[in-house]
Design brief:
It is built from eleven helices and 14 strands. It is an alpha/beta fold and 322 residues long. The structure holds adenosine-5'-triphosphate and magnesium ion.
Length: 322
């Protein structure tokens, strides 16, 4: 029996479920264990038991136990636009659902106090948010995505009274909720460059920002402004998405371009940021979204547009999963 096998066999069965790797070389046994779900004293106990068990193996002179971080390394992606109504929320939902289908543990934070939409888009509009003490418990959806929304914290119609510090506190409550093993939080920002965006950038520095625009010039000018904000805060731009690009008439099959064509891609090129893809303007997307069935949840032709964008986001995050 090799010494490494002897080291492995020395680990008590009740602890082996937490052990991620065991190495043995030159008298040194190195054990990596997952203490993510343990409190501090239980983690210390785990370490001690591993050291004792492995330390008694013949030939082992030293035991090094590395406990994996208590906190899941969680990345934050912001979805923004300069202009309202361009499809940030729709994109956020579908990116989240597409990534969840690939096995990424995704949460959605709806940071739009004036028009929260994620609970509706993810089919949990009627669920009340739960809390343990002051910590909010994200709502689980049928798509494997967890969600928390500003809309769950405020009474409908009261949003208008919310200003700076309150907005910041509410955002913090959402971001610091009990996200558990969630690896990626996608934040659906309100349009423009206000309090929520500033708090988001200053306090919860995103790993990157996805900026949505429609093809027309006015929306693009606003998108540029949103990108400037991210850049000033040194948040990398993952890329630009063109939404509502081209309208395929369901009656006659003609493709028209109510908002122009290709503007976002050209803008991305001239600004030196990646172009992540375009999503057509389609009745099916709106209808599916409004009924809490994101197009990516079912393998529809419209879902495919979002999936392509989600794959690029996964690549950016180093989360490319099969
Ligand atoms: N590609 C699309 N085809 C058809 N309808 C779409 C498409 N994208 C978004 N919509 C619809 O357009 C409306 C606005 O979209 P959405 O709420 O995602 O935009 P937003 O940028 O988040 O808006 P706001 O600035 O108000 O938060 C919604 O009714 C949505 O269903
Ligand atoms: Mg929105």
């Amino acid at each position: 029996m090799s010494s490494e096998t002897a080291v492995k066999e020395a680990i008590p069965a009740e602890l082996s479920g937490m052990v991620r790797s065991v190495k043995f070389a030159d008298g040194v046994a190195t054990i990596i264990a997952d203490a993510g779900s343990l409190g501090r004293s239980a983690a210390a106990q785990l370490q001690k038991e591993l050291e004792e068990a492995v330390g008694s193996v013949a030939g082992v002179e030293e035991v090094r136990v590395a406990l994996m971080a208590d906190k899941v390394a969680r990345q934050v992606i912001a979805v923004g636009s300069g202009k309202g109504g361009v499809g940030k929320s729709t994109l956020t939902t579908n990116l989240a659902v597409a990534l969840a289908k690939k096995g990424v543990k995704v949460g959605v934070v709806d940071a739009d106090i004036y028009g929260p939409s994620q609970p509706l888009l993810l089919g949990v509009a009627n669920e009340k948010v739960r809390a343990e003490g002051k910590t909010l418990i994200p709502t689980q959806t049928e798509f494997g995505v967890k969600v928390l929304s500003m809309g769950q914290l405020i009474e409908p119609g009261k949003a208008i009274a919310w200003r700076g510090p309150m907005v910041g506190q509410a955002l913090a409550q959402l971001m610091e909720a009990d996200w558990g093993d969630t690896e990626l939080l996608i934040v659906d920002l309100p349009p423009g460059t206000g309090d929520v965006q500033l708090t988001m950038l200053q306090k919860f520095k995103p790993a990157g920002a996805v900026v949505v625009s429609t093809p027309q010039d006015l929306a693009l000018i606003d998108a540029t402004r949103a990108m400037d904000l991210f850049r000033q805060a040194q948040v990398p731009i993952v890329g630009l998405v063109e939404n509502m690009a081209g309208y395929l008439c369901p009656e006659c099959g003609t493709l028209s371009n109510p908002f122009g064509q290709g503007g976002t891609e050209a803008a991305a090129q001239s600004m030196g940021v990646p172009f992540l893809g375009r999503v057509p303007l389609a009745m099916e997307i709106r209808v599916a979204s409004d009924t809490g069935q994101p197009p990516t949840a079912n393998d529809t032709q419209y879902g495919a547009h979002f999936v392509g964008i989600a794959e690029q986001l996964a690549g950016f995050l180093g989360m490319a999963k099969g």
